[in-house]
Amino acid sequence: MSCWQTVQDYALRSLGMGERLLPRENFTLCEQFTLIGSGLIWNVYFGTLALLAGFFLATAVAVGKGARNRLVRKLSEWFIFVFRGSPLFIQFFFAYFLFLSLKKHYAFFDPFTSAWLGALIVLFLNTSAYSGEIFHGALRAIPRGDIEAADAYGFSGWPRFRRIVWPTMLRLAWPAYTNEAIFMFHATTLVFFSGFPAWQQKGDALYYASYFADKTFNPFVPYPILAGYFILLTLAVLAIFGYINRRLNRHMPQAARRGIRFRPNLIR
Amino acid sequence: MKKVIATAAVMAFGAGMAWAQDVVRLGTEGAYPPWNFINDAGEIDGFERELGDELCERAELDCTWVTNDWDSIIPNLVSGNYDAIIAGMSITEERDKVIDFTQNYTPPDPSAYVALSKGIDLENAVIAAQAATIQAGFVADKGWTLVEYATPEETIAAVRNGEADAVLADKSYLAPIAAEEADLVMLDREEAIGGGVGMGFRESDEELRKTFDAAIQSMKDDGSLNEMIKKWEVASTF
Amino acid sequence: MPIRQGGRRRPPCTSGPRPRERGDRAIFSFCTDPSTLDTARWFACYLTTGKHANFYISFGTVLLLLAITAPTALAFGFGGAAAARSRFLPLSWLGKIYIAIVRGVPDIAFFLFFVIALDQAFEWVRHQVLCPGWDEPIRQGNDFIVCPEAKLPLGNAPQWVHETYGFFVAVLTFAIVFGAFAANVLYGAMRAVPRAQLETAEAYGMSRRQIFWRILVPQMWVYALPGLSNLWMVLIKATPLLFLLGVEDIVYWARDLGGTANPRFTDYPHGDWRVWYFLALLVFYLGFTRVSEIFLERLMQRFTHGQAFSGTGTGQAGMR
């Protein structure tokens, strides 16, 4: 069977399209590359959606943590503490358990025990907590002068936040937030590994990699392939976030643009 | 990571006689009752513990037990971290290409289904299995709806909470569970998948494999193996 | 029936379907027959079984691993960062490639094959050094076979040596992975030290080496601390992956103890209690995180004492 044929059969296998049966003997490198790559679709799906949705909750939580209202502040602090203070793996366990119990009583929760929704929610809350902490740190680091200047120009409330505080916060937080994005994508490998069940052998990149490792009894081929894919994914994330970072800093003088304190977090 | 010993292959051409085989390390999973599990005292126990100890005694070998995660149990054997696998491992063609097995010490054990009620239409049911087991492969081949969990415990839980309609696993694993839990029943249908269970060795370790093979044969001959199988209810007898 | 190791007695084959010895090794005298006990005593017995002792010990294992891994990873990180900064190009590339590759790969994927590879690498090197006259191939089909003298640990070593070795391979793997993250943080911190400081040192006639050790290194810590603190938090939360490295950690035991216990195989049968065991783990991790936070905050205060440095959170990498 030619490699192109394999790609046609298995490129979308993780979504349930193409050949139903996974290869079972005489595993070729092509099959391993194709299927593990197919699984990567799920990693990208989880990572991208969790980050996009998490971005907004993170902003809210960051503002909440600095709020004057005691209740709002405490709620945000506890949210961040619980999700940052416990391993993701345990969060998956409890979420799955919770969704199962809810499902028994309310039909509304039926889809929540599937990875595509249930795991996404956990990852979304998780990244919100981590990013919230980063954004909170950035909010505290905004130079007083910027805020005072905004006040002097008559900004207040929402416009001040939208036009002054928020962009500055993003600019300061971006290098660390880039790191968070990378780790979010890495964390998606836990979904099927120890969190949610895989239906009809539709899994993520790690699921297929361990499938091959288990069938060939040789971990030295599939896992390095998986690693290779993730290095590419990381590079892509870095490129996108680097582009946004340049946009966020484009008004800054050249020297200051390079002078973000933890810039190398981004550049590596 | 558990490391190993002077192998029989080494002894075969005499290079390492000074390192004569003092300890044979037996690798098991420790999470698959009644085959092998960790008892209340925190020790490895079960059918295979008893069998392994008896085999070592008959072969006059000094043995020690190590546990290893199921997923990496073969890679760690060929890498030399222990000398034998004795972990309820069915003799399959796939595995036989990578490692060598002794003769089987239990006859082929059928796989069985456990569900909440007897009247299940398997073809249209959701069937749970542990990921990367022969049972998971079987359900996938049939084209039925397969849902895979990381541990056997979770497959049972899935049936109990309605995520899956039935679970397919080794009969010996399901029997005590179905016997104990009132809400779970075993279906009459059984699947003859997998061969008998044997001990696995590195392909280069022919000497050691033969030693254990002979010990198993002697247990088969004097009937003590059947006794042990009956006692632990792991399979049918020879 | 004598048996070779450990003095573990085996029940005779005729003892019926419950082949364990009741209540052996129990701490309390009343644990002989748990099925007759009231709730409080039952739990007293249940929570003091040998299996639970293993569970408690594994908490110590995890703490010990963290205690050893943290400085080791820092050393790797320091080496990586110093290499990446090097003016000698190949060394600089080496440092940068180490940081980029290890950081780019999810830690699970790394753990799943790296330990075996590391172990084989050690044995291969020892084999080359110790057994020059060996003419058998090391790779025989799927098998990896080195001469007995090169085995790690040696074949006749007792079990605890094997376990200790396994533990240190796990530490080393963790250190290599987290060393890459530490290198990234330290590399950033080194570049965050104001240039003027280094230029002044140059003006005073210090050599490159002197500038590095006397000016750069002492000053970089304050910039590195937020990132390193965060890394420590991530390291804590990576410990559930330890069982992938062959170390029986708290998650391994929580899973095993929490799973449904069938009366055929235990004196303490119970249903699916995983929730309670995982709850205990959750409390442990949250508590440990809190303690770490307080400690690191104090450390930061001490570091920034008398310095015009606002300890902002911007250096905090978000990881799990």
Give the tally of β-strands of chain A. 1
Beta-strand percent range of chain C = under 5%
How many helices of chain A? 12
CATH class wording of chain C? Mainly Alpha
Question: How are the SSEs ordered, and which strands pair?
Answer:
The complex is a heterotrimer of chains A (268), B (238) and C (320).
Chain A: H1 3-10, H2 29-65, H3 70-85, H4 88-105, H5 115-141, H6 144-152, H7 157-187, H8 190-195, E1 198-199, H9 205-216, H10 222-248, H11 254-257, H12 263-267
Helix pairs in contact in A: 1-2, 2-3, 2-5, 2-7, 2-9, 2-10, 3-5, 4-5, 5-7, 7-10, 9-10
Chain B: H1 8-12, E1 24-28, E2 31-32, E3 36-38, E4 44-45, H2 47-58, E5 63-67, H3 73-78, E6 84-85, H4 93-98, E7 100-101, E8 111-115, E9 126-130, H5 134-142, E10 145-149, H6 152-160, E11 166-170, H7 171-180, E12 185-191, E13 200-201, H8 206-221, H9 224-232
Chain C: H1 39-46, H2 50-85, H3 89-104, H4 107-130, E1 139-140, E2 143-144, H5 159-192, H6 195-203, H7 208-238, H8 250-258, H9 274-304
Helix pairs in contact in C: 2-3, 2-5, 2-8, 3-5, 4-5, 5-7, 6-7, 7-9, 8-9
Kindly describe this structure.
The complex is a heterotrimer of chains A (268), B (238) and C (320). Chain A is built from 12 helices and 1 strand, in the order ααααααααβαααα. Chain A is mainly α and 268 residues long. Chain A has one domain: MetI-like fold, CATH 1.10.3720. In chain A, helix 4 (88-105) packs across helix 5. The longest helix of chain A is centred in the N-terminal third of the chain and has 37 residues, at 29-65. The two termini of chain A are 42 Å apart. In chain B, the strands form 3 sheets. A 5-stranded mixed β-sheet of chain B has the order 5-1-6-13-7. The longest helix of chain B is centred in the last third of the chain and has 16 residues, at 206-221. In chain B, helix 5 links the parallel strand 9 (126-130) and strand 10 (145-149). Chain B is globular. Chain C has a single domain (56-261, 272-303), classed as Orthogonal Bundle (MetI-like fold), CATH 1.10.3720. Chain C has 320 residues and is an all-alpha fold. The longest helix of chain C is centred in the first third of the chain and has 36 residues, at 50-85. Chain C has helices at residues 39-46, 50-85, 89-104, 107-130, 159-192, 195-203, 208-238, 250-258, 274-304; strands spanning 139-140, 143-144. Chains in contact: A-B, A-C, B-C. The interface between B and C is large, with 67 and 69 residues.
